[in-house]
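Usage

Read records sequentially. Each one opens with the input sequence:
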Amino acid sequence: MVPPVPKLLAGTRDWVISFESPTPEGAEYVGRNHPLVTAAARYLLEEALAGTPGAAASRSGAVLTRAVSSITTLLLVRARYLCRDARMPALMEEVLAAGWQGSPEPSAWLGPEEALGLLKRAEPSGNLAPEEKQAWVSHALQLLGGSREGPAWDKLGRLLEERAQQLAAMHAGILSASGAPGASPPVLSPQRPPDILGVLVLVPEVSR
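and closes with the structure output:
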């Protein structure tokens, strides 16, 4: 049953919205493709990327969760590829999830699908003190290093090489299926280093 919506007061310009469908009478449905959601997401992202003091969203954090059994660091990576084909070279980009398990040193690396799966299902199961969050994030950033060099960046570089090959193969499959005459698959060259847009440390309850 759809709950009733309070009537608008005479003379007001209140905007009644609903996140549920079917939408109550007199309200506007706001789904993930609504301009309000798009604008809010853009504002939060730009504020976080700019490092605005007191920003509502952060590029880094740590959460206590039951989704993992060991310390797991997840990265949100912006990858760029130089695409060369029969047309003019073009720069392509995408956002990937990556990461590693283990602490103080990585013991296993996570591919994009596995890392993205953890991002989707890792729910907070308790609270971490601000000092704990800062310590975990600081350690992850130390492993990455500010010079964008070292084992972690080498591993990210190899991941992007594999991803470039996958994208080229996917494009070749599309060309083959479309029967494009004389079309050759593009050559994708990862542009290093990638940009790290976000860092999230998953702290298992058993580690506390």
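Summary fields computed downstream for this record:
- The chain has two domains: 1-44, 58-207.
- The longest helix spans residues 151-178.
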